[in-house]
User: Which sequence fits this backbone?
């Protein structure tokens, strides 16, 4: 197994203040493009703070604050053109997964031009790519340490996957989570939970990725409730867990729940982490049937005492549902307002994400996906 990782990783209170030092250590010079969403960076004061830090470093800044949730091809290509026109030397992504993914896409387009579609998986991305500094503001995507960037087009999620878009530096300042609404924290933490679980059952999983998966799972399951309630000590632990889960999928990838959740986000605007979480309990029970020893190992690895795979699957699913219930998240597709008439489309779209299905350690047939979706609709 091989994977690229950030050259510099900074984690800690007020670590955003170390941005100028990080740029100097990495030799990043020239004009910077700050890529972020439409509201948070400006309203929280972080946009001004980052601008001041960069200016103090002698760095000119171009702000691109037009990134929407689930960034579109059009938005990223607009940012890429601006970066090229402005002669940007490196890109800083500040925000959730959408902002960081957009920064990755812009870093490619600014250096190489063309359309974002030219770089969709399975295309092999080659040099040059501008350096990327990622500063996450949610505890979910792990994009600050991964080789993936996901973009929306129509009702499809498309991925650019390459070691060349792993951020050169990642700065994780837990203080940003003070501003994170509880519901968004819950959605993004569910995404991190999905990453850790799915990486564990990926065909590329090994001792290294499992180490990241298990530690992330322990932290999320133990700290979710207090973090949801706003306690910063526990939010900091979720932030760390999200990064670890990002390391796990950077070594492996995602499988069934992500493949099924994409359509729900594009069609019904269900937030990505929530959409993925709607299939997690059913996925665990499915894996308990197909790979019982693996599920027992997982349960025991995070501290559960179980006698067999069925109990392990049931306990894991019940714990996930407990957290979702605590945060007031829907436990079924029905509760999430997905019409029953849409279930076949959910199945068909899920089956179309072949990479996610084929990378699962258990072989998956169409009838398996249909059963998972039907159970997820009922929440059983």
Assistant:
């Amino acid at each position: 197994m091989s994977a690229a990782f950030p050259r510099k990783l900074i984690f800690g209170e007020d670590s955003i203040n170390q941005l100028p030092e990080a740029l100097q250590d990495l030799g990043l010079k020239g004009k910077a493009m700050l890529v972020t969403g439409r509201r948070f960076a400006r309203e929280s004061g972080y946009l001004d703070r980052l601008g001041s830090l960069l200016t103090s470093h002698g760095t000119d800044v171009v702000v691109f604050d037009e990134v929407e949730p689930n960034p579109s091809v059009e938005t990223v290509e607009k940012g890429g053109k601006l970066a090229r026109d402005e002669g940007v030397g490196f890109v800083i992504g500040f925000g959730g997964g959408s902002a960081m993914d957009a920064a990755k896409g812009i870093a490619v387009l600014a250096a190489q031009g063309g359309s974002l579609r030219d770089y969709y998986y399975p295309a092999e991305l080659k040099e040059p790519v501008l350096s990327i500094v990622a500063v996450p503001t949610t505890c979910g995507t792990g994009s600050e340490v991964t080789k993936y960037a996901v973009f929306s087009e129509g009702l499809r999620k498309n991925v650019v996957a390459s070691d060349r878009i792993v951020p050169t530096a990642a700065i994780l300042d837990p203080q940003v989570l003070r501003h994170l609404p509880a519901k968004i924290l819950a959605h993004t933490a569910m995404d991190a939970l999905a990453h850790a679980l799915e990486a564990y059952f990926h065909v590329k999983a090994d001792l290294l990725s499992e180490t990241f998966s298990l530690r992330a799972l322990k932290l999320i399951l133990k700290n979710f409730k207090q973090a949801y309630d706003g306690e910063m000590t526990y939010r900091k632990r979720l932030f760390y867990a999200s990064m670890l889960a990002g390391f796990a999928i950077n070594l492996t990838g995602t499988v069934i729940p992500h493949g099924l959740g994409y359509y729900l986000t594009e069609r019904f605007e269900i937030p990505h982490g929530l959409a993925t979480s709607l299939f997690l309990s059913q996925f665990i029970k499915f894996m308990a049937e197909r790979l019982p020893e693996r599920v027992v190992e997982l349960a025991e690895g995070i501290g559960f005492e179980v006698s067999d795979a069925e109990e392990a699957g049931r306990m894991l699913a019940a714990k996930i549902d407990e957290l979702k219930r605590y945060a007031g998240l829907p436990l079924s597709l029905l509760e999430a307002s997905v019409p029953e008439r849409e279930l076949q489309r959910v199945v068909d779209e899920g089956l179309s994400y072949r990479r996610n299905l084929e990378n699962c350690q258990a072989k998956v047939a169409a009838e398996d996906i249909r059963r998972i979706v039907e159970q997820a609709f009922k929440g059983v």
Summary: The longest strand covers residues 61-67. The chain has two domains: 8-177, 180-378. The chain has a mean pLDDT of 97. Residues 207-228 form the longest helix (22 residues).
